[in-house]
Amino acid sequence: MFEQEKYQQAAEKALAFILRQMDGNRYTIFPRMEQPYPEEYTKRIYATVEMPTDATVRFPDYCWCDCFYGPDYTGVCSGHHQNTGEARLHLGLEISTMTDQKYRSAVCFLHEDGTWRSETYYKEIDYDHKSIHWYKKDKLLNESGSNGVKSFALKYYKWVDELGGEIDLDHLPTTQSSWPEGKTGLVTYTVRPLLLDDETFTKFLAKNKLSVQSTSTALLENLRTLRRGTAASSIPALRSAHRTAPGRDGDSSS
Predict the structure, then answer these.
(1) I want to staple 245 with a disulfide (CB 3.0 to 4.6 A). Which of 71, 137, 152, 218 is the partner?
(2) What's the rounded Cα separation, in Å, for the pair 228 and 237?
(3) CB contact at 8 A, 85 and 219
């Protein structure tokens, strides 16, 4: 019974696995513990690794941080992104902090130069002088000292102005065609991105079997869907667009 080819292949794979386990590791880089950890220690462990200068760095497919941000880190978080194309205008890098529960700390815009940064944008309207001024300020995480593990996730967000119109924070409008009659004073609006889908971007791609190569085409279809609607009404069509969008080679599951 066990002489069939499929059983022989399974036996060979099992033997190869056992031999690999018996072979001592050949790593030349080892982690250095931040402090001695006793055997009974059950909490988070921190370590550093000294990378050789000639090491090859492989970046994640979509987003990564400029450095490690520990639980007690206070300040700006920043990093880079790639492989999102025009769809970056409908994405945001959500930074969450876990304390007694998970809190959203910031949502970062994906800039066209391939960077992201925790920052807040403001639109200042001067009705007296009929002028508009945009500016931004750094968003400091953990300003209150509520230490917690930070997580980073790409999600679908819509970036809008005070009237609900979509905006590109890299190319902000500075003029207004008409002004309200008799309105005076200075008004400041804080740009707050609208969450379109709470499912993470990478999880959605994996569920629909979309690789990095097919992502660009699928997301362009997604952009057309998002521009036709908002929030819940656009999500079913959004998912349909992902499932049917062809890949680079015409294969939606490539």
Answers:
(1) 218
(2) 10
(3) yes
Tens of pLDDT, residues 203-213: 766 666 555 55
Range of 3-7, 108-112, 152-156, 236-240 with top mean pLDDT:
108-112
Task: Please state the pTM of the whole predicted model.
Answer: 0.66
Extract the runs of DSSP E, i.e. beta strands, from 159-193: 186-190
Distances in whole angstroms, Cα of residue 93 to Cα of each of 10, 37, 86, 145, 158: 43, 34, 15, 22, 12
CB 196 within 8 A of CB 156: yes
Neighbours of 47 (CB within 10 A): 11
Other C-beta atoms lying within 10 Å of the C-beta of residue 125: 19
Confidence (pLDDT) at 17: 86
